[in-house]
Amino acid sequence: MSPTLSLRRRRPELDVPPDEVIEDPPPIASAKEQVASKLGAKVTTIALMGCLVAGPLGLAAGGLAIAQASGSVAPVQTTVPDQSNERAAAGEFAQRLVLAWLGSTRDHPEQLAALVSSAQTASLPTVAFTTSDPAVSSIRSINGVWAVTVAVTVTDSRPSTARRFFQVPVVVTDQTLAALTLPSPVAGPPVAAGADLDYQVQVASTGPVASTVAQFLSAYLAGAGDVTRYVTPGDQLPAIDPAPYTAVRVTDLRCDLNVDTAATPKDGTILRLLAAADATATAKQTVSVNYALTLRSRAGRWEVAAIDPSPALSTKSPGAGPASGQPTPTGSITTPTGPTSSATTP
To answer: Considering only CA atoms, which of 303, 238, 245, 324 is closest in space to residue 277?
Structure first.
């Protein structure tokens, strides 16, 4: 057979080797997709411009914060050293020195010489002074030196007894105590007449208030009856044991509120009182005592809620406490049983 000839020309894309794969051209995007692509490009452009604008601003803000942080210096926390041991040692040593100084004589200077070097040239009496009730009146630190004031009751040969005050400069170094000089007699602290108290209302000597106070003080000081009968339940006010007195008589009673103390009180009423009484130990020994008390009404009767640690001060007085008539914390107050002393700090 003769081959058949074709007059049509062959398409060029068909002139491809048989082993090659012809990839399809990418599809043409629709109109909707083209619009979305343009919008995305605009959003991206705006975001980039915002970053360019915000970049310098953020950099400036960060620089300002760094400058402020570097300019402000954090406060240095300093630890205050505990000097309680030095203070106590200086106070005890000053007391010992004052007693040795007053108790030494020309014939027996040994005790004083063991405590201070200046005792070698000190003039001492031929008869020692009699001393009692030594106490530290005040302590303050001045440039590393403890200025200690010691109070002592001194009796001389006249005889004359008085409360005297002596100042001693003490240095504490590496657990070593040293007095820089002999004791210096000084004036004692001034004593004021006292502040005005906020008990302006006289309480009748008869009535439920006066009865409660009288019975409570008799049980508390003289052991006359059970003190808990007159105390608010839950409050602890144990009587002094053994009782220091045999009888107690209330001589004056004042309160801070103008209320009818003879009438039945409304439950929960708070009343602050100042009681004056005579406490008798023996037929020849009677002393006057004062008690600041807080009374609370319950079930139509008055009960003692507390022995106040401080009387109510008038609002016109310096350092006055809470306003008159305000309730105070309840609880017992420990009564000292021996000589006490106070120490003031700088």
So the answer is: 245
Do both 255 and 283 map to the same domain? yes
Range of the domain at 277: 201-307
- Final residue in a domain of this structure, among 118, 153, 186: 186
66 domain residue, yes or no: no
Local confidence band at 62 (pLDDT 50, 70, 90 cut-offs):
low
Measured torsion, CA atoms of residues 58, 59, 63, 64, in degrees rounded to the nearest 10: -30
Cα–Cα distance list, 132 to 163, 190, 339 (Å): 9, 21, 11
Per-residue pLDDT reduced to its tens digit, 117-144: 887 788 999 999 999 999 999 999 999 9
Length of the chain: 346
3-state SS string for 241-283:
CCCCCCEEEEEEEEECCCCCCCCCCCCCCEEEEEEEEEEEEEC
171 and 99 in a common domain: yes
End residue of a domain, out of 186, 221, 236 = 186
- Does residue 49 sit within a domain? no
Choose among 267, 272, 262: nearest CA to 312: 272
Of 291 and 53, the one with more pLDDT: 291
Reported as half-sphere exposure (CB side, CA atoms, 13 A), residue 153 has a value of 6
First CA to last CA across the chain, in angstroms?
A: 137
Task: Kindly state whether residue 316 falls inside one of the protein's structural domains.
Answer: no
pLDDT, mean over the chain: 79
DSSP for residue 104 = -
Residue 283 structure tokens: 């037929």
How many structural domains are present in the chain? Answer: 2
| Cα-trace Rg, the chain | 46
Q: Return the percentage of the chain with pLDDT > 90, whole number.
A: 52
| 152 domain residue, yes or no | yes
Check pLDDT > 70 for residue 15. Answer: no
pTM of the model: 0.58
What would the mean pLDDT of 194-212 be, rounded to a whole number?
89
Supply the CATH number for residue 174's domain. 3.10.450.540
pLDDT bin (cut points 50, 70, 90) of residue 53 is low
Burial of 240 (0-12, 13-18, 19+ CB in 10 A): middle
